[in-house]
Amino acid sequence: MTNTPPPNRFKRVALLIGTTLILGILFPLALAEIGLRLFWGGYYEKDAESRYQRDEILGWSPIPNFDGVHGGAEFKVRVRHDSNGMRGREVSPARVHDVSRVVFVGDSMTYGHAASDEEAFVGLLDSRDNGIETVNLGVGGFNTCQEFLRLKYYGFKYHPDLVVLDVFWNDIYWENLESPGPKFEVRDGELVQLGFDLEDLNSELIFQREEEGREWRDRLYVYRLVSDSIKLLRAQFRDNFSRKFKEGSKEKDEKTWAIMEALLLEFKNICEENNTPLLVVLIPDQVEVETDKKVLGLPPQFSEIKPRLEKFLSENDIDFYSPLSDLKEDYLRIQRPLYYNLNRHMTPDGNRALADAMEPVLRETLALE
């Protein structure tokens, strides 16, 4: 006769094994969660209230009087908009100070995506005793089409002495064709604005926390770290392989260049109509400044962008400035990163270096002593 263990014993063993396995998984996860919350210096944009609202003209625009926290895996900053939705301190459209006013137009680089109001290069230029007052019309995620519309409908209300258009290379190869919001195309040599559906905008990327509450797992640092790491790897794979095949056609390259060149001429024309000088600033990417770094996601034509832009601007008598050599010199001098490795936007050092490089150029353009 075989002695069989009583059923209760099997249940106790199974319960013990199950409990051990669960605790063996949950305990390390709990330690990781506590460690991330206590010691990790990063911050998740998912936690931040949206800085943007839907806009029938621009697609989206900064929320007036916003005051909140914004961040990513490498930074956490305070962001403020004035009553007109401009980044930084309150600036009245009416001229109240006896200084030269410069309106900056651009995307997240101009907005100061990874910088506080005081750290962003536009804010730094404004805070210095240099005879310059700045207005920051930069908006994260904007293409050159949206930047033109923002200047056209809002920028000249500030009666600027100078308009600065900050150009980043991705405007040409991706943003002007593929980003959400309003776009233009060239038909028979004419620049034509295309319509867009305001409700089709990607609310996850632009309008955080639009829904009431979040899934419980989105509140866990461990889950979000793993989730965002997977998304980053997926984006890197896409950048390294997919885009090379998707965007390699000569026809598409020339189409996006035609849009960019037509828009630059429109910037020139509208500034001339408003008797305001235009200066185009060619913002360099991390790999151009920190040449020891490897950057993913650059198109095969990357090395051709800056020379072609400079040639077009020169041929059409549009003033431009490239801070590349100044930023490289600053990087070698201070031996600290000017760009965040994951985020690819400028660090406080990068914003300071760009402000240092641009200040004498602006003063010379404005004929300030």
Question: Features of this protein?
Answer:
single chain; 369 residues; alpha/beta; Rossmann fold; 2 domains; 12 helices; elongated
Structural class: alpha/beta
Using the alpha-carbon principal axes, give the shape: elongated
Continuous helix count: 12
Adjacency order of strands in the biggest sheet: 6-5-7-10-11
- Measured between the Cα atoms of the first and last residue, the distance is 108 Å
Layout of helices and strands, plus pairs?
Layout lengths: L6 H33 L12 E4 L3 E4 L4 E6 L2 E6 L19 E6 L2 H4 L9 H7 L4 E5 L7 H10 L8 E6 L2 H9 L4 E5 L2 E5 L8 H4 L14 H26 L3 H24 L4 E5 L3 H4 L12 H14 L3 E3 L2 H11 L13 H18 L4
Parallel strand pairs: 5-6, 5-7, 7-10, 10-11
Antiparallel strand pairs: 1-2, 3-4, 8-9
Helix pairs in contact: 3-12, 4-8, 5-8, 11-12
Write up this protein.
Helix 3 crosses helix 12, helix 4 runs parallel beside helix 8 and helix 11 packs across helix 12. The termini are far apart. About 1% of the residues have low confidence. The protein is elongated, with a radius of gyration of 25 Å. The strands form four sheets. The chain has a five-stranded parallel β-sheet, sandwiched between helices. Strands 1-2 form a two-stranded antiparallel ribbon. The chain has twelve helices and eleven strands. It is an alpha/beta fold and 369 residues long. The chain folds into two domains: 30 residues; 274 residues, SGNH hydrolase (Rossmann fold, 3-Layer(aba) Sandwich).
